[in-house]
């Protein structure tokens, strides 16, 4: 996440082993610090 901040990214996606098992992606808005979980099929 530090690398995303360094390049001024607006969003950061997290896809770890838990997300793969639940078929979800965590999307973080790096400006507002909001976090949202969506289904991989919606991505």
Secondary-structure blueprint:
Blueprint: H1 2-6, E1 11-14, H2 17-22, E2 24-29, E3 35-39
Antiparallel strand pairs: 1-2, 2-3
Order of SSEs, N→C? HEHEE
* General shape: elongated
Overall mean pLDDT stands at 91
| Count of separate DSSP helical elements | 2
The amount of helix comes to 25-40%
Q: Count the E strands.
A: 3
- Looking at the overall shape, the CATH architecture is 3-Layer(aba) Sandwich
Q: Return the CATH class.
A: Alpha Beta
Query: Gyration radius, to the nearest Å?
Result: 11 Å
Class from secondary-structure proportions: alpha+beta
If strands are numbered along the chain, what order do they take across the biggest sheet?
1-2-3
- Proportion of residues in β-strands: 25-35%
Q: What multimeric state do the chains show?
A: single chain
Ends apart, CA distance between termini: 19 Å
Fourth CATH level, the homologous superfamily: Anticodon-binding domain
Low-confidence stretches: none
Tally of discrete structural domains: 1
CATH topology: Rossmann fold
Q: Main sheet? A: 3 strands, antiparallel
Features:
43 residues, alpha+beta, Rossmann fold, 26% helix, elongated
Write a brief caption for the model.
This protein is of the alpha+beta class. Helix content is 26%, strand content 35%. The model has no long low-confidence stretch (mean pLDDT 91).
Verbal overview:
The mean pLDDT is 91. It contains 2 helices and 3 strands; from the N terminus they run αβαββ. It has 43 residues and is of the alpha+beta class. The chain is elongated, with a radius of gyration of 11 Å. It is 26% helix and 35% strand. The two termini are 19 Å apart. It has helices at 2-6, 17-22; strands at 11-14, 24-29, 35-39. A 3-stranded antiparallel sheet has the order 1-2-3. The protein has a single domain (2-42), classed as Anticodon-binding domain (Rossmann fold).
């Amino acid at each position: 996440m530090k690398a995303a901040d360094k390049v001024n990214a607006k969003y950061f996606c997290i896809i770890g082993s838990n997300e793969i098992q639940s078929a979800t992606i965590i999307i973080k808005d790096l400006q507002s610090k909001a976090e949202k979980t969506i289904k991989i099929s919606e991505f």
